[in-house]
Amino acid sequence: MRNKLQFVSITLAVLVFLSMALAQAPSQPPEMKDFSDAQKISDPQKKLEALEKIVADFPKSPFLSTVNQEIFNVLVKNWPDQKDKILALAKKMIEAVPEQSRSFIYNNVATKLTEAGILLDEAEQYASKSLTLLEDEMARTLRQRRATVLATLGQIYLKKGKIAEAEKSLKEAYEANPSAATGLAELSEKAGNYTAALDYLATAALSGQMSADARNRLESIYRKTYNGSLDGLEDMLDAKYKKAYPNPVTVEHYKPTASRSNRVVLAEIFTGSGCPPCVAADLAFDAAMERYSRKDLAVVMYHLHIPRPDPMTNPSTETRSKFYGVRGVPSFFID
């Protein structure tokens, strides 16, 4: 339920930003300009005042987490005696992100406090919480990787004709990794159960991990089931996707008003393949793309190595993230 509410809130925020952007001339978000100017200030007191003014002037900005992190760094470095203020800001920074993404923030806070030699008891607590969350994340990753190996083992058993062992390994793998669906589809096909085989292959197609050979098998079985035709296959996959991943927000197609400018809005989203809360932001922009046509909205996704290595990250995405000062995902900017 919490994930659904998170997705709804992000989607609504995205749609509001886009509606405003379509009616406005392109410009750099004012808080970003103010932050850039504040970064150039050498006097710590004046820099702190400039950063705090950004927080006061733009309390709902998606850029606020970056500003608060910089305020925290300035405080720890220049006023380590203001412990209550430092801890209050640390709490705000941590609470601003979903629990499953807090490991990085906890550790970042603990590191800064340790380097400054202050609040070491609190630093220990933050580091311990970071470790607990990290271990939970590693356990999830281990289950997924184990499932991948089980799927491979199941395929080996299948090729060796060890049907019982293959079914056991593949079903266990399927609970955590839908890529095992292709092996289960083969077992179902061998048993003559084309309905089950088709369902498994459709699941594999939705996972985004389907090979060209598996796709050919999907189409072949679909033809056998539907009188030699592929008509309706994509509709079937779309329906299965919507059932498996229901969208809690229903959007209406955008109808321009008198205030509509002739510009195309650019939305830049920073995400990560290993970032659970990024799913809500990604789906929110899917909803936005359903509402707006490509002449109204262009979406560019940038992958980063946050919170774990991401194979879709490249020098261009990292350079763009530095331009915006991105320190966490998901983050997005609309122009």
Would you kindly provide a written description of the structure presented here, covering whatever features stand out?
With 335 residues, the chain is mainly alpha-helical. Among the domains are: 138-244, Alpha Horseshoe (Serine Threonine Protein Phosphatase 5, Tetratricopeptide repeat), CATH 1.25.40; 265-334, Glutaredoxin (3-Layer(aba) Sandwich). The chain is built from 14 helices and 3 strands. It has helices at 2-22, 30-39, 44-57, 64-78, 83-95, 102-116, 120-159, 163-174, 181-190, 194-207, 212-225, 233-244, 278-291, 315-324; strands at 265-271, 297-303, 331-334. Helix 3 (44-57) runs antiparallel to helix 4 (64-78). The two termini are 31 Å apart. The model is unreliable at 1-6 (pLDDT under 50).
Based on the model shown, name its key terms.
3-stranded mixed beta sheet; mainly alpha; about 325 residues; disordered N terminus; flat; Glutaredoxin; Serine Threonine Protein Phosphatase 5, Tetratricopeptide repeat
Averaged pLDDT: 84
Strand content: 5-15%
Tell me the CATH architecture of one domain.
Answer: Alpha Horseshoe
- The CATH topology of one domain is Serine Threonine Protein Phosphatase 5, Tetratricopeptide repeat
Major sheet: 3 strands, mixed
Return residue spans where pLDDT drops below 50 for at least 5 consecutive residues: 1-6
Radius of gyration of CA atoms, rounded to a whole number: 25 Å
Main sheet: which strands, in order across?
2-1-3
Helix percentage range = 55-70%
Q: What structural class do the secondary elements suggest? A: mainly alpha
CATH class category of one domain? Mainly Alpha
Give the number of helices: 14
Strand and helix order: HHHHHHHHHHHHEHEHE
Tally of DSSP β-strands = 3
